[in-house]
């Protein structure tokens, strides 16, 4: 097996003093993506970039807890290991599981989700976990957040290929666990049009000083939108090029926020647009949240909708959505049941209310509903501090990584009959599920959606339903 270069930077003097090569057998994968090994002395070592069953030679840094290994050589590959397709895989922090086959990634995600939930709900019956495979394992990302840096002393004109020393501008991702820039000019998980954009960005930024975040995404008509949050100065040529590209229709829009300047400058419409799960365009807030892929978001939204209407209710349903964003899920939820769900003529939607804290996302959500002729109330509020009205039957929530402990407490005290919890973080989901299940809600469905292929990240959907006795007592 070939020698692997080290992930991240060169390490401190203290790191180098405390490492020595050892042979490690990787037993399993941990949340966060690293493999876990035990030394002969029983010491636990976390080793990034490994697969279960790998035997590796690694430097071990014991100055951190748990000790951390850096792979020098793979001596025997584990059964799920594949050759990563990306040239940047060992330096870039993005695709920490690209060295695992798709089947191995799915199995490992399933184990991590079940283990996290078991940890907090050991006394609760769990249904078998269903995995929704990734519609596309590569070329799926319709958005990416990049880092761009001008080399010290400013950048200069030239043919930018994403690295310092040509255009003087580096554009890429952050190295795993650090703020260091890993310049890239190809990214295999981006859609082809965003991948092509990577090599244009260094030239766009020629003459800049400082650094910034660059959000690239699909915009109106599939054309790119670019959002720059820059700490430093941009050259006049950057402003001219942004103006030209949008005026000529090559890009749908751009937005630039300079540090210390209150209002960002906009060109065209900088809001990302993907195809919603209903097939119509879905507008997302510029710089705000969006699911990583169009197709993955559709799989997620369709399944959440199905789980809401699983038991066709005998009376019109009051539906509340918390952490609604720009409406990835809402555009299906606000439609009510599908024709099949309403076959008995009784399933229907009495009311739909969506709560979102971001004013720009809420405005997009209103536009998305209006464009579809859907009614629903969109409230800008803190969903983690919102009481659940007694008439609400079903609540869908999709909080950020920190979870929703406030909303979980409100749901536990509510009479909501069904809760559909969507999460990108099994640890905080598990914490919140402990509260929900203790209140009498039973987990009826546990599902993982492969929304972030090639990475250790996974999306989870949990449906909970109230035990009939408590529901009756509370209603
Ligand atoms: C994981 S995203 C989900 C959005 C949407 N379901 C989707 O799929 O696009 C979480 C959303 O919650 C919003 N948010 C974060 N904290 C919030 C809070 N305390 N109250 C309401 N919304 C919040 C964020 O702005 C973001 O739009």
TrEMBL record:
<feature type="active site">
    <location>
        <position position="424"/>
    </location>
</feature>
<dbReference type="InterPro" id="IPR012340">
    <property type="entry name" value="NA-bd_OB-fold"/>
</dbReference>
<keyword id="KW-0808">Transferase</keyword>
<feature type="domain" description="TRAM">
    <location>
        <begin position="13"/>
        <end position="73"/>
    </location>
</feature>
<feature type="binding site">
    <location>
        <position position="356"/>
    </location>
    <ligand>
        <name>S-adenosyl-L-methionine</name>
    </ligand>
</feature>
<dbReference type="InterPro" id="IPR010280">
    <property type="entry name" value="U5_MeTrfase_fam"/>
</dbReference>
<feature type="binding site">
    <location>
        <position position="291"/>
    </location>
    <ligand>
        <name>S-adenosyl-L-methionine</name>
    </ligand>
</feature>
<feature type="binding site">
    <location>
        <position position="398"/>
    </location>
    <ligand>
        <name>S-adenosyl-L-methionine</name>
    </ligand>
</feature>
<dbReference type="InterPro" id="IPR002792">
    <property type="entry name" value="TRAM_dom"/>
</dbReference>
<protein>
    <submittedName>
        <fullName>SAM-dependent methyltransferase</fullName>
    </submittedName>
</protein>
<dbReference type="InterPro" id="IPR029063">
    <property type="entry name" value="SAM-dependent_MTases_sf"/>
</dbReference>
<keyword id="KW-0489">Methyltransferase</keyword>
<dbReference type="InterPro" id="IPR030390">
    <property type="entry name" value="MeTrfase_TrmA_AS"/>
</dbReference>
<feature type="active site" description="Nucleophile">
    <location>
        <position position="424"/>
    </location>
</feature>
<comment type="similarity">
    <text>Belongs to the class I-like SAM-binding methyltransferase superfamily. RNA M5U methyltransferase family.</text>
</comment>
<feature type="binding site">
    <location>
        <position position="323"/>
    </location>
    <ligand>
        <name>S-adenosyl-L-methionine</name>
    </ligand>
</feature>
<dbReference type="Pfam" id="PF01938">
    <property type="entry name" value="TRAM"/>
</dbReference>
<keyword id="KW-0949">S-adenosyl-L-methionine</keyword>
<dbReference type="GO" id="GO:0070475">
    <property type="term" value="P:rRNA base methylation"/>
</dbReference>
<dbReference type="GO" id="GO:0070041">
    <property type="term" value="F:rRNA (uridine-C5-)-methyltransferase activity"/>
</dbReference>
<dbReference type="Pfam" id="PF05958">
    <property type="entry name" value="tRNA_U5-meth_tr"/>
</dbReference>
């Amino acid at each position: 097996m070939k020698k692997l270069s080290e992930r991240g930077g060169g390490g401190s003097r203290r790191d180098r003093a405390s490492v020595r090569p050892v042979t490690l057998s990787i037993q399993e994968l941990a949340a966060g993506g690293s493999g876990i090994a035990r030394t002969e002395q029983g010491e636990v070592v976390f080793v990034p970039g490994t697969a279960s069953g790998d035997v590796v030679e690694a430097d071990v840094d014991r100055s951190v807890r748990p000790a951390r290994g850096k792979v020098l050589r793979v001596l025997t590959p584990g059964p799920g290991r594949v050759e990563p397709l990306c040239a940047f895989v060992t330096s870039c922090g993005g695709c920490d599981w690209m060295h695992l086959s798709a089947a191995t990634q799915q199995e490992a995600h399933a184990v991590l989700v079940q283990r996290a939930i078991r940890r907090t709900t050991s006394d609760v019956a769990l249904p078998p976990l269903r995995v929704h495979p990734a519609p596309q394992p590569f070329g799926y990302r319709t958005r990416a957040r990049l880092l761009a840096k001008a080399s010290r002393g400013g950048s200069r004109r030239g043919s930018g290929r994403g690295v310092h020393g040509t255009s003087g501008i580096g554009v890429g991702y952050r190295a795993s666990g650090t703020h260091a820039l890993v310049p890239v000019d190809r990214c295999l998980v981006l859609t082809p049009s965003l991948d092509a954009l990577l090599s244009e960005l260094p030239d766009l930024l020629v003459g800049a000083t400082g650094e910034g975040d660059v959000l690239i995404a699909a915009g109106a008509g599939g054309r790119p939108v670019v959002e720059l949050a820059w700490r430093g100065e941009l050259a006049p040529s950057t402003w001219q090029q942004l103006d030209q590209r949008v005026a000529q229709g090559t890009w749908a829009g751009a937005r630039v926020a300079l540090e210390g300047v209150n209002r960002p400058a906009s060109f065209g419409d900088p809001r990302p647009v993907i195809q919603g799960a209903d097939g119509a365009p879905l507008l997302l807030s510029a710089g705000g949240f969006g699911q990583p892929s169009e197709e993955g978001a559709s799989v997620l939204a369709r399944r959440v909708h199905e789980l809401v209407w699983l038991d066709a209710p005998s009376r019109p349903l009051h539906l509340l959505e918390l952490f609604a964003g720009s409406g990835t899920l809402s555009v299906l939820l606000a439609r009510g049941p599908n024709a099949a769900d309403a076959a008995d003529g009784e399933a229907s939607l009495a009311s739909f209310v969506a709560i979102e804290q971001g004013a720009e996302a809420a405005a997009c959500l209103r536009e998305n509903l209006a464009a579809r002729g859907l009614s629903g109330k969109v409230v800008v509020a803190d969903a983690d501090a919102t009481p659940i009205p007694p008439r609400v039957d079903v609540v869908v929530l999709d909080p950020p990584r920190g979870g929703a402990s406030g909303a979980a407490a409100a749901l536990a005290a509510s009479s909501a009959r069904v809760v559909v919890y969507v999460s990108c973080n099994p640890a905080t989901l598990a914490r919140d599920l402990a509260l929900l299940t203790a209140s009498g809600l039973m987990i009826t469905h546990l599902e993982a959606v492969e929304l972030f292929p090639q990475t250790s990240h996974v999306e989870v959907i949990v449906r909970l339903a109230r035990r009939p006795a408590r529901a009756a007592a509370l209603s």
